[in-house]
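This part of the workshop introduces the protein records we will be handling. A record pairs a protein's sequence with a compact description of its fold. Comparing a sequence with its tokens is the quickest way to learn the format. To make this concrete, we reproduce a full record directly below:
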Amino acid sequence: MNFISLQENLKRGLNIVGHITTKNINLPILNNILIKVDKGNIELISTNLEIGMVYKLRGKINHDGEFAVDSKLITEYVNLLSEGGKVSLEKKEEQLLVESGKYKTKIKGESAKEFPLIPVISQEHYYTCDLENLKKALNSVVFSVSSSENRVELTGVLFSFNENKLSLAATDSYRLAEKQVEIKGVNIENQETNDEQSIIVPAKTVQELLRVFSNLNETILDGDYQVKICLAENQILFIVDSVQLISRLINGHYPDYKQIIPVKNETKIKVKRLELLRAVKAAALFSKTGINDVNLQFLKDKIIVSAFSGASGESRIELEAKIDGHDNEITINYRYLIDGLNNISGDLINIEILNNNTPCLLKPEQDDSYLYIIMPIRQ
């Protein structure tokens, strides 16, 4: 194996794929990145057995071959090389020779035969979404995923593909976020049917995908880039630019969350998002430890945000708001409310409630594609 690549290209690829390598005592090969040169392609490959990553690297190929080297070591070394310079990588016996200008080093590695196979998923059938829209959508729901393994299906984000729309949903049973994204292109079997296809993608996969998006945005994306999504039995493949991310799916039945979305309300509120966020943060300083409760009272033309703690004192803040319907109030977990307010875009938000025993619904003023629901704290 022998090829030459630019330092910035090699650095970018190693930083992207190296992030999922893990220290594994039982399977040390997982600490490595596989460098593979075959059929005119240079690939950097990594896996933690749950997620696999492939980065297609540009460069001049002299000889095909493959070799596995320690991820942390080669990444840190290449990061220190001069930007703009060329880097030569050559496998000789059981070492990788790396040369760039006056820098020359030998890195011990392992045979590629020990490296786990990355699943091959057909790219014939796929959905495509705009990268920026998908990135914003995933960020706006993934924070609601459950961190408890008691219900494994809630530790992922539900992807529901239907005609030209992708619905993303996440819940930990105390709050729920849902966002809809436009599907730009479709090439799937039985496309003429309206059957919805739903899968559960692990939260760790979503977070890794978001990290890849951010990394690409910082370096090479300067246009309207698309993300291709391919599905297989128990697996999903995301393709964007030179990166492929393959992940296992979560097996399980996702709850029918549509049932808890309120369809009736007694009170509708319109308020400035940042003013409510600031008030909730201030009141939260006086919430009860472990309960995290804040009380929202909706009166004729104002919201009263309050909290009381026998240990620290109390806080009461009044905000101007437009209120339609009956006077009302609700007590909710301030952490969940702050999460929602931070992930809703726009200056104004709409809040809808029926009473203090039913979920509170938050939506952006100008965006029907997003909703956030918080269950009340029952007194």
Q: What stands out?
A: The domain at 2-114 is CATH 3.10.150.10 (DNA Polymerase III; Chain A, domain 2).
